[in-house]
Amino acid sequence: MFSPLAEAMPFYDRSIDVVIATHPDADHIGGLPEVLRRYDVDTFLDPGVSSDTGTYQALVQSIGLAGVERVVARRGMTINLGGGATLEILFPDRDMEGADTNDASIVAKLVYGDTSFLFTGDSPEKIERYLAAIDGKNLDVDVLKAGHHGSKTSTSDTFLGFTSPQIAVLSVGSDNRYGHPHKEVLDRLLDFDIKILRTDEEGTIVMESDGENIFVND
What we know:
Layout: H1 2-8, E1 15-20, H2 26-29, H3 32-38, E2 40-46, H4 54-66, E3 69-72, E4 78-82, E5 85-91, E6 107-112, E7 115-119, H5 125-135, E8 143-145, H6 157-163, E9 167-170, H7 183-191, E10 195-198, H8 199-202, E11 206-209, E12 214-217
Parallel strand pairs: 1-2, 2-3, 7-8, 8-9, 9-10
Antiparallel strand pairs: 4-5, 5-6, 6-7, 11-12
Helix pairs in contact: 3-4
């Protein structure tokens, strides 16, 4: 995690506004202690779900040592990122302690001008359907970070219908043992005529917005 971050940010920029730990699974938090050690982080956002793994305990210790403000994400929160950019928390909307960690994933919508991005962590289809039922109109975005690395348990037809993104980003490791992304998800995205960007093919994906257009950096 640290190396791609260092490549994306200028060497002299050591500050990060918000770090989001979508949920406490190791593949989502394993690199965060190093980020907290090397950067000045203003706010650390997590769903308020704990874990007994060594990876999670190391993260908790790093948060304390860094003296970072830790905020439990809840629906209705809006974080002002400056310059007109905002991050709206869509889920969780309740205490998820004891729930499956994927179910507890933070779902957040980043808005800048007329452009918008939706980040879903490992949220499964049942959470997608829940969000569509309670707030479907607010799910429409330009870019969707597809759920659970392109697993067939996420990125349902219903969710794609409500989000209607132009681009879907799949964060997935090369030759991973889970077979991600699953063919079913790729087929769904193609059926909706959504451009697919995969980290196993593209490497680190960096996007920039001027408030009207979204640019994908090589």
